[in-house]
Amino acid sequence: MKKKIVGLLVASMMVFSLAGCGGSKDTPASSDAGTEASTETDTETDAETDAATDEAADAGDDAADGSGGELISVGIINNDPNESGYRTANDKDLKAMFTEENGYAASFAYSLKNDEQITAAQKFIQDGVDYLLLSAADTAGWDSVLKDAQDAGTRVILFDRTIDADESLYEASIVSDMEKEGETAVNWLKDQGLEEYNIIHIQGVMGSAAQKGRSGAVDAAASSDGWNIVTQQTAEWNAEKAQQIVQSVIDSGESFNVIYAENDDMAKGAVAALDKANISHGVDKDVVVMGFDCNKWALEELLAQNWNYNGQCNPFQATYIDEVIKTIEGGGEVTEKTIIMDEKGFDATTITQEDVDNYGI
After folding, report:
1. What's the predicted TM-score (pTM) here?
2. Which single residue of 27, 156, 208, 242 could bond 266 by disulfide (Cβ 3.0 to 4.6 Å)?
3. Could you give the C-alpha distances from 84 to 87, 191, 237, 257, 340, in angstroms and in order?
């Protein structure tokens, strides 16, 4: 099924509606918010009209008829790379790996909506890609299209996020343990020994693996330890929406002392609302601020003790995916079906500049 490509690989583009977690540069691993999705190859970035899509596909077929080295064709479905620092780093990592120089003909599709991602997956399968790489917007709804991929001989590799599907439908899953991320953060919060816990819980895109894992831990603690959830709303990974949520609570006059935001951008938006209201935050201040993804700027806020906690979510999965593909292409067996990224949490009172430099994305 590999395609022989000569000269410049012409990009085929599709346009959809769009809709993204972070980590260490030493090890790979998830969070989410955009409005428009697109597909692109690694040689072209601007979307064209449907007619241009057809022309690009024809040109790609013409190129494949020539002589030259064999490239492994991959269709990569991801969330909007502009949604967060995590997703930008994740997309950049994938594009650096899946190039012609590394033996790949790669096409990319972006969306935060499951139905649009599924449409993109079906198109990649129809195009006959060798591998379908998937970071799903939602954990549910993938069984049918993955069965279609299996029937077509397209191998599926999950990255970044898990899905609710039988393991027989994919070759490997290279993901973050979102439940563990949430548990690590919540255990840290418990250890702070606050006199009371009045929490503004700002959620990511509902139904995503990152949201489920990070929300589940807070819900469990609130139930078992009697924490008060002042409000629990989705800001869809978006800073501005998070700021609006916190501002609304401030305007209501209800007391709170913890911001639990499921990514750094939303934590930043929450802090903007606190600053506007002259509410202190950070170490030994009025409000504890918690985020996820380990953007470098967020870890710098931690180092300055303006924030209190940041949970790592590692975006660098491309090397691991490449190893899985190379193993399969060499006739070997993938011994680890699920590869979990090694991740940690950072405390403002113990983080160092070296941590910021090594783990900031």
Report:
1. 0.76
2. 242
3. 5, 29, 8, 25, 21
